[in-house]
From TrEMBL:
GO biological process, one term: isoprenoid biosynthetic process
UniProt family annotation: Belongs to the FPP/GGPP synthase family.
Keyword presence, Signal: no
Cofactor(s) for this UniProt protein: Mg(2+)
Keywords: Magnesium, Metal-binding, Transferase
A single GO molecular function term of this UniProt record: metal ion binding
Keyword Kinase: no
A Pfam family per the record: polyprenyl_synt
Protein name, as recorded: Polyprenyl synthetase
Length: 161
């Protein structure tokens, strides 16, 4: 989902549409794809982290809603992969429970953090952002456009809301 929804729909396709409308020179669409796909995925991973660990006052949605909804995100998959058997059982039993209370959310957050899944997700966000910026560094675009896209990358991947 991260690659095809956020990567393509949210970032890559709008860039490609803009390139087509501007009759961009050869090489620009490929560069936009190489930038947009990893950036969109990183954006989605940041959204997934905020869905579990975000501050409701900043995100505008209740803390832990992604856990209550049972979203099978990279963050959750990484926790399942790295947690011990007992913690995996708690994850499996609690994930998707619409009545999960604040204590239950806190327990799942602790499991995600202790398993290293949060750190792994943050590493993946950094890797994807680096890949996007590397692609952008050689893109045949104007410096002003490059600067705007670098700023967009930072905003998309370091946001707190």
């Amino acid at each position: 989902m991260a690659r095809y929804k956020a990567g393509k729909y949210t970032v890559e396709r709008p860039l490609l549409l803009g390139a087509a409308l501007a009759d961009a020179p050869a090489g620009v669409p490929a560069a936009y794809s190489a930038y947009g796909l990893p950036l969109g995925e990183a954006f989605q991973l940041r959204d997934d982290v905020l869905g579990v660990f975000g501050d409701p006052a900043q995100t505008g949605k209740p803390a832990g809603d992604d856990l209550r909804e049972g979203k099978r995100t990279y963050l959750v998959a990484a926790a399942f992969a790295a947690a011990d058997e007992a913690r995996r059982a708690v994850l499996a039993a609690s994930l998707g429970d619409p009545t999960l209370d604040a204590a239950g959310v806190a327990e799942l957050r602790d499991i995600i953090t202790a398993s290293g899944a949060l750190a792994r997700t943050e590493e993946r966000i950094a890797e994807l952002t680096s890949s996007a910026l590397t692609a952008l560094s050689t893109a045949p675009i104007e410096p002003e456009a490059r600067e705007v896209l670098v700023t967009l990358a930072a905003a998309a991947t370091t946001r707190t809301e």
